[in-house]
Design brief:
225 residues, alpha/beta, ten-stranded mixed sheet, 10 strands, globular
C-alpha cells in the first residue's frame, strides 16, 4: 500500500470541528441531489434520442426492504426511517460484528449498495460511533471499510465518520475522533498515529483528531485517489 503524506499538527477548537463535519455532511447530501438533477437534465436534452431511459438514483422512501435486509446478529435494534434525502439506519453493532469485522462491513456495504441509505449511524458495544453519510445505491471498497472499522476498534477511537461525495470526481473521506481527559492521554494517542496511518486504506482524505483539555490535535492524511 502506498504510504500517505501527513501535514503538520495543529490545534482546532471543538466548535470548529463540529461545524466542519456539518458542512461536509450538507455538501454530501447536496452533491447527491445535484447529481440526480444532472442526469435527469441530460436525458431530457432536446434533439437527443435514447433507446432506453438511463437509470437514475432511486430515492425510495419505503424503509421496509432495507429493514428486512438487516441481519440482527450483526446490527441489533436496527431502525430504518425515511428522510428528505434518502433512508436512515440506526442501530447497535453486536459483539459478533466486532469479532467479525469483515462480515459486518460486508453486510453494511451490501445495505448501502442495495438502498439509498444516505445516513447510517451505528454504535458499538463500547459506545464508539460508526457513521456513514452520502451513500445512495453506492458503496465503498469492502477491504477499505473493514480497515477503517478495525482500526477504530483496535485504537479505541470514540467515533469514526465516513463521508461519500458522488459524481465523476467521486471522493470518500473519513475522520477518526478521540476524546481524552488529560494532556498525557491526548499525547499518547497522537504519538500512535504514525503506526495507525500504516493500517489505514487509501482514501482522498482521512483526518485524525484527538480532543484534550486544552483543545484538539489534528492530522490530515491525504492520498491521490
Amino acid at each position: 500500500m502506498t504510504s500517505t503524506s501527513s501535514n503538520s499538527r495543529f490545534k482546532v477548537p471543538a466548535p470548529v470541528y463540529y461545524l466542519g463535519v456539518a458542512v461536509l455532511l450538507i455538501a454530501a447530501i447536496t452533491a447527491i441531489v445535484l447529481l440526480a438533477r444532472h442526469e435527469a437534465d441530460a436525458y431530457n436534452r432536446p434533439g437527443v434520442t435514447y433507446g432506453k431511459e438511463p437509470p437514475a438514483p432511486d430515492f425510495n422512501g419505503d424503509p421496509a426492504p432495507a429493514q428486512a435486509q438487516v441481519q440482527p446478529w450483526l446490527i441489533d435494534g436496527a431502525v430504518v426511517t425515511d428522510t428528505h434525502s434518502g433512508l436512515e439506519l440506526t442501530g447497535t453493532l453486536t459483539p459478533d460484528a466486532e469479532l467479525n469485522p469483515n462480515t459486518a462491513t460486508s453486510h453494511i456495504n451490501a445495505l448501502l449498495a442495495d438502498h439509498c441509505l444516505n445516513t447510517v449511524s451505528l454504535q458499538t458495544q463500547d459506545n464508539m460511533q460508526f457513521d456513514l453519510f452520502g451513500f445512495c445505491h453506492s458503496s465503498m471498497d469492502p477491504a477499505a471499510m473493514s480497515a477503517l472499522y478495525s482500526a477504530a476498534l483496535n485504537d479505541d477511537a470514540d467515533a469514526v465518520t465516513v463521508l461519500d461525495f458522488p459524481g465523476e470526481a467521486r471522493q470518500t473521506r473519513a475522520e477518526f475522533v478521540w476524546f481524552t481527559d488529560s494532556t498525557a492521554e491526548q499525547k499518547a494517542i497522537v504519538d500512535s498515529w504514525d503506526s495507525l496511518s500504516q493500517t489505514l486504506p487509501k482514501l482522498r482524505l482521512i483526518t485524525l483528531t484527538a480532543y484534550g483539555p486544552d483543545g484538539a490535535q489534528t492530522r490530515d492524511l491525504w492520498s491521490r485517489v
